């Protein structure tokens, strides 16, 4: 959750608690009027003495209902121009790490009902004159760095989503191959029908291509390279592949694919989120194109 710390005090205070599992974190970026446009956030943090006073709300935050602590994107200078220079990241616990008591000024809202991806909660949270220790809670120890922390984190986040897309697509392909050998029509398994073979062939090819794109992005990230283009490619292609493979797996299963008796029904519900989370695939196309042009200027 936390990319870097500005002081030894922050390291000593937060990291042991996260490492021990005492605190579960989440990332507080999205707001009702600010999703892909991070610079449009309205949540503010005003410095008052040795405290930050936070006001605003976040939505579609993964793990916020059961989690204990947020890396919260705020505006510490709402008048900054360009806007990203006025954005900072705070560690905002929901409970006091020492006493384990709820902190004032913070309200966890409703758990959002979702089509799929029900294994982890997604919800809302609001801050009303919530106070946190400035020295302990300002990530990096310097105001104005929040936008770069968030966008830097989104690179690995997109690789993560791409990897999840690969896993989902692999399962869909495996289920489709297995069922196509069990199900028979016209006296033979449906895998022997060309219509099914063309589906399976295309699914397998795209799954393998997704694997390679994720591996490429992950290797470059581990090497310390900038991977906005590679992470965008992996996220875009792997998530679209996951959705396509889940859909085709359901169609290969026929009516059973629409039944909760088979896992492909869940894959079909879970897959669309991959195309939306960590930046929509509409935005990924632009994210890919910009560095592509910059790297190949004539």
Automatic annotation (TrEMBL):
Keyword DNA-binding included in the entry's annotation: no
One GO CC annotation: cytoplasm
Cofactor: FAD
An annotated GO BP: fatty acid beta-oxidation using acyl-CoA dehydrogenase
Gene Ontology molecular function terms on file: acyl-CoA dehydrogenase activity; flavin adenine dinucleotide binding
Domain Acyl-CoA oxidase/dehydrogenase middle, chain residue ranges per copy: 26-129
InterPro entries registered for this protein in UniProt: Acyl-CoA_dehydrogenase (IPR050741), Acyl-CoA_DH_CS (IPR006089), Acyl-CoA_Oxase/DH_mid-dom (IPR006091), Acyl-CoA_Oxase/DH_mid-dom_sf (IPR046373), AcylCo_DH-like_C (IPR036250), AcylCo_DH/oxidase_C (IPR009075), AcylCoA_DH/ox_N_sf (IPR037069), AcylCoA_DH/oxidase_NM_dom_sf (IPR009100)
Residues covered by the Acyl-CoA dehydrogenase/oxidase C-terminal domain: 144-291
Keyword set, alphabetical order: FAD, Flavoprotein, Oxidoreductase
CDD domains tied to this protein: ACAD
PANTHER family: ACYL-COA DEHYDROGENASE FADE3-RELATED, MEDIUM-CHAIN SPECIFIC ACYL-COA DEHYDROGENASE, MITOCHONDRIAL-RELATED
Sequence similarity: Belongs to the acyl-CoA dehydrogenase family.
Name recorded for this polypeptide: Alkylation response protein AidB-like acyl-CoA dehydrogenase
Organism: Brevundimonas bullata
């Amino acid at each position: 959750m936390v990319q870097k710390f500005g002081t030894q005090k922050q390291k000593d205070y937060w990291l042991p608690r996260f490492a021990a599992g005492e605190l579960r974190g989440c990332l507080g970026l999205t707001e009702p009027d600010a999703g892909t446009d991070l610079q449009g956030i309205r949540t503010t943090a005003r410095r008052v003495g040795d405290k930050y006073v936070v006001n605003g709300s976040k939505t579609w935050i993964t793990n916020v209902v059961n989690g204990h602590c947020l890396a919260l994107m705020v505006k510490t200078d709402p008048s900054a121009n360009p806007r990203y220079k006025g954005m900072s990241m705070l560690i905002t616990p929901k409970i006091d790490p020492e006493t384990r008591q709820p902190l004032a000024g913070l309200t966890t809202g409703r758990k959002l009902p979702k089509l799929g991806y029900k294994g982890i909660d997604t919800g809302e949270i609001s801050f009303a004159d919530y106070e946190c220790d400035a020295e302990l809670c300002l990530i990096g120890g310097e105001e104005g760095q929040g936008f770069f922390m968030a966008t830097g984190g989104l690179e690995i986040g997109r690789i993560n989503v791409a990897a999840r897309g690969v896993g989902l697509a692999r399962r869909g392909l495996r289920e489709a191959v297995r069922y196509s050998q069990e199900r028979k029509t016209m006296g033979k398994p449906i895998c022997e029908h060309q219509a099914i073979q063309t589906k399976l062939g295309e699914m397998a090819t795209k799954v393998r291509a997704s694997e390679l794109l994720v591996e490429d992005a992950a290797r470059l990230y581990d090497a310390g390279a900038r991977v906005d283009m590679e992470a965008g490619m992996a996220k875009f292609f792997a998530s679209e592949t996951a959705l396509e493979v889940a859909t085709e797996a359901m169609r290969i299963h026929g009516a059973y694919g629409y039944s909760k008796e088979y896992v492909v029904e869940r894959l079909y519900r879970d897959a669309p989120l991959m195309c939306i989370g960590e930046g929509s695939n509409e935005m990924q196309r632009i994210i890919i194109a910009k560095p592509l042009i910059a790297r190949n200027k004539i």
